[in-house]
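Q: Could you fold this chain for me?
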Amino acid sequence: MYSDILCLVGLASILNSIIIFNTTDFAVTDTRIIAKTGFLRRRSLELMLTKVESILVNQSIAGRIFNYGVIVVVGTGGTKESFPYINDPMEFRKRINAQIAGIT
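A: Sure. Below is the predicted structure, expressed as structure tokens.
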């Protein structure tokens, strides 16, 4: 009985992660960062590159092994947006930093 419940909880967690992963879009243009996530509920962020203070990358051990993590974009004025289950988060941060360096 308990193993069935545990199996269902694990399956629901995996399904939730797959949905988040497949419904998340990120883009870095020459002027802004655009992030959209969600299936039924939509959450989006557009942040001008000149307003980005820092980009944080959080990766668990499993995230390091499977190359995914959480991106936290901190903007001026205290804007702090977190986006989980991002594929290759270090590359994403590197591309943002390259665009910011091109502006200055």
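A (continued): The chain has three helices and six strands.
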